[in-house]
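Technical note accompanying the year-one report. For the benefit of new consortium partners, we illustrate the data format agreed upon in the data management plan: each record pairs a sequence with a structure-token string. No post-processing was applied to the example shown here.
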Amino acid sequence: MKKMERDYYQSLYEVAAILNSQRDPRALLRAIVEYVAKTTGHKACSLMLLTPDREALLHTAAYGLSSWYLRKGPVRVGKVISEVLEGKPVAILEASTDERVLYREQAKQEGIASILSVPVRLRGEIIGVMRVYTAEPYRFTEDDIHFVETIANLGAVALENLRAYDIIQKDYDTFRREMLQWRAELGDEWVMGDLVVPPEEQEIRMPPGG
């Protein structure tokens, strides 16, 4: 992260205290992304959760990103996201030119240089992606990646615990369905328009009977 040593263990203690102090799910998620951005010293951080069909990610919480950038639309599962959903962190050095980035021009206008994407896991399932954005090109280290992954997963567990208070008497299948539904509802404001598909990824579709 910044070119200085950081005590990540101390930071984990601090974030654990933040997670234990929050009782509102939205406030919890906002606190997580703000903490990651400020602790790493980078431009921004966002948390995106998968839609129930696992076809797109919805910006659920963000810190340091403009409303304009967030409202560019849901993030379709593309090259980078597919790798992350397989459990592999992905670091991009030049977001404005790397072909794996879905919204390259928007990233350039937002002043985003590098992006780190890590999976968010819950009960062995990947439910979303946490991203860290830098204002200058930056090569993320193994320690950086491990720290962000740990925070993302701690946040997922804390989030599940909050939801569990409401449905503790229900069986696991019901619990899982309600978690999926709630995850979609958190980002329902981002589903109002069609997904934006870059020209290079659009398929040529023949008209009926053509």
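Partners are asked to follow this layout when depositing records. The longest strand covers residues 125-133.
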